[in-house]
Write a structure and sequence with these properties.
Length: 665
């Protein structure tokens, strides 16, 4: 390991690839994957204490084993014997030591390759800022030699996943910096083959594409350089639904007018760059708030957690018992503000760590590490990203928050942060984070009816980022939400395959709450297509499963969709009964958005049953609730029903037989 220092007993560790350890040149058997993941947490916080709570969250997240603390102690005991084989029995450990509330690994930083890697990349940045490009190139050479594959390969747990992303991004940035130094040293001909291969592997990294464009142009291959720009535009549009950033576009403009092998002069821009350090996570602010928000989801919306256990037996009767009001007592204003603050801080930090695409001649090829100030290019973009781990954690936090507040009066609060997350994903070329942001935006209440079409497009794009085998939960959620939007705009033929896909994927995931919802939405799509038999079969199955689960959120949602299906089929009596019960569950679970929708559908049912006074009252209730959630679909339905009900009451004296047209569905 180049540049590594010696640890007690000649210990050395490699994390930039599969986790490996050696002692005086002898390979160390570090144990099973979970034990290795435990050691990795300590190595990434070398010579700093890590609490027991942080270790548990790092290894298992929400899926705690029965004896988490006991398991940690077992790992500690095994590793102490391995790292200090000659330590006398009952004597104090000197390498893996206990602290007041956790453990600390005493290993010199130079004995860990990740520390050495970050030290050398930081040194390269300082040398480049001082104008010593040759020495910076050498430091980056030494840093990249430490790399031996995907970091922490095969290690389980949320902390390993976050660190894997963070370290991979550091490596990608170091590769870009290395290419930049090579071009600055006029080695463009030799640099083009490896740079072209790297650019092909990372088509969404605009800085990489800018480097390749400049290298090709300096080599007299102007047409190829312009072709790289066109390919990048297509990739950005196809994957993220965005165009190129301002700096890449400006480089393209200059290349079109410059003679081959030359670049026109442009004002130099120096930016501040903070290379991401190994975070204090898993105990820093973002991670702590994320852990608390996950816990809130498990506690208050277990129906939305795929790993949630099934509740108890079903109630003895379909009639709702007089239960007390339910709400989200843990989702206080203060807690939501903490979530908002954590998201804002994380996104601001991402902006601070962005390296501007253009620092030399405005070409989009460099990053500074000096004393300059950051600049905004006017488009919300600065450069490709450096901290995808922070993007991933921020995306998960926003997604969890939006699930907690869906249907509540706070359902709009995650929208603005989701727009910022999408912009950050665009800068960093991160399709996964972009998919999360698009999903949040697509499932929030639309600003107007016309927004439904835009939200459908957003969901389709989000689904393109969740089609890998490991992304089944995200693809199932996207399919279900897309089916609902298609039903709302009256396109049941398109909605049906999506609801059925969601149903099947949730069955594979053993997610009964979600599967019941998908069945109910399938019934609604069948009903809108006029297939009464299929709608009845799916609706009855959904109700049976929801009642067996005895979860008020799931039951309210299923009753709502099945009630709408019955309304579409003309079965007004059962439709109204289902919708009344759904409204009851929406109210007691603190879901004013869905309660307002239920009132508007009850107004339609009352009109169909020739009860205009009741219809007007239901529509008025819907409009009163809609004002707190601002849902134009609900408002449109309620206004139409109330208008028709008031017209009937004005033109038909009491006792006059009513001959009413069918209400709009």
């Amino acid at each position: 390991m180049p540049g590594s220092g010696e640890a007690p007993g000649g210990l050395r560790f490699r994390l930039l690839g599969p986790l490996q350890g050696e002692q005086n040149g002898r390979h160390l058997p570090l144990g099973p994957p979970q034990q290795r993941a435990f050691l990795a947490v300590l190595l990434l916080r070398v010579d700093r204490p890590v609490s027991t709570a942080e270790l548990i969250d790092a290894l298992w997240g929400e899926r705690l084993p029965d004896r988490a603390v006991g398991t940690l102690r077992t790992y500690v005991s095994r590793l102490r014997r391995l790292l200090e084989p000659e330590r006398p029995a009952r004597s104090a450990a000197t390498v893996l030591v206990s602290t007041d509330d956790g453990y600390l690994l005493r290993v010199p930083p130079g004995a860990v390759d990740t520390v050495e890697f970050e030290r050398r990349t930081s040194a390269a940045g300082r040398l480049r800022a001082a104008g010593d490009t040759e020495s910076a190139h050498g430091e980056l050479d030494a840093a990249l030699e430490l790399w031996s594959g995907t970091p922490l390969t095969g290690l389980p747990g949320p902390h390993a996943a976050r660190q894997r992303d963070r370290l991979t991004e550091l490596w990608l940035t170091a590769r870009e910096d290395h290419f930049h130094c090579s071009l600055a040293l006029e080695r463009h001909t030799a640099t083009i083959p490896p740079l072209r291969a790297f650019a092909a592997e990372h088509p969404l990294r605009e800085r990489t594409q800018a480097l390749l464009m400049q290298a090709l142009h300096r080599d007299g291959r102007q047409a190829e350089a312009l072709g790289v720009y066109e390919e990048t535009c297509r990739a950005l549009a196809g994957e993220l639904g965005v165009g190129p950033g301002r700096e890449l576009s400006a480089l393209h403009t200059r290349l079109r007018t410059a003679a081959p092998g030359e670049l026109p002069e442009a004002r130099a821009t120096v930016v501040r760059v903070r290379v991401p350090r190994s975070p204090a996570a898993p105990g820093d602010t973002l991670e702590r708030v994320l852990a608390e928000t996950r816990a809130a989801l498990v506690r208050f919306r277990p129906d939305l957690v795929l790993t949630a256990p099934r509740p108890g037996p079903p109630p003895p009767s379909a009639a709702p018992p007089p239960l007390p009001e339910l709400s989200l007592p843990g989702l206080t204003e203060d807690f939501q503000q903490r979530i908002a603050d954590a998201v804002a801080a994380a996104l601001s930090a991402l902006t601070d760590t962005d390296a501007d695409i253009g620092t030399e001649n405005g070409t989009g090829t460099g990053t500074g590490t000096g004393t300059g100030t950051g600049t905004d290019n006017g488009t919300g973009r600065t450069a490709n990203g450096r901290v995808p781990a922070a993007l991933d954690a921020t995306g998960e936090l926003l997604t969890t928050w939006s699930r907690l507040v869906q249907g509540t009066a706070d359902c709009h609060r995650p929208i603005a942060p989701a727009h910022r997350l999408l912009a950050a994903a665009r800068r960093h070329g991160d399709p996964s984070a972009a998919g999360r942001a698009l999903h949040i935006l697509a499932t929030a209440p639309p600003v107007g009816i016309d927004d439904l079409g835009r939200n459908i497009d957003r969901l389709r794009r989000a689904l393109r980022h969740s089609t890998s085998p490991g992304d089944t939960p995200a693809s199932a959620e996207g399919a279900l939400d897309l089916a609902l939007l298609l039903v709302l705009v009256g396109r049941p033929r398109e909605a049906l395959p999506w609801s059925e896909r969601a149903r099947d994927r949730y069955a594979d995931l053993d997610a009964p709450h979600h599967r019941a919802r998908a069945l109910a939405l399938t019934a609604r799509a069948h009903a809108l297509r006029g297939d009464a038999e299929a709608a009845g079969r799916a609706g009855d199955q959904a109700l049976d499963e929801a009642r067996a689960l005895a979860d008020p959120h799931t039951l309210g949602s299923v009753l709502h969709h099945v009630g709408c299906a019955r309304l579409a089929l003309g079965d007004h009596g059962r439709a109204v009964a289902h919708l009344r019960e759904a409204r009851y569950h929406h109210r007691r679970t603190g879901q004013p958005r869905w309660e307002a929708h239920a009132w508007s559908r009850l107004a339609e049912g009352a009109l169909a049953q020739r009860r205009p006074e009741e219809a007007a009252a239901c529509a008025t209730q819907a409009l009163a609730l809609e004002r707190t959630v601002r849902d134009p679909i609900c408002r449109g339905l309620a206004l139409a029903a109330r208008r028709q009900a008031l017209h009937i009451l004005d033109t038909h004296p009491p006792g006059t037989p009513l001959d009413l047209p069918a209400p709009p569905l």
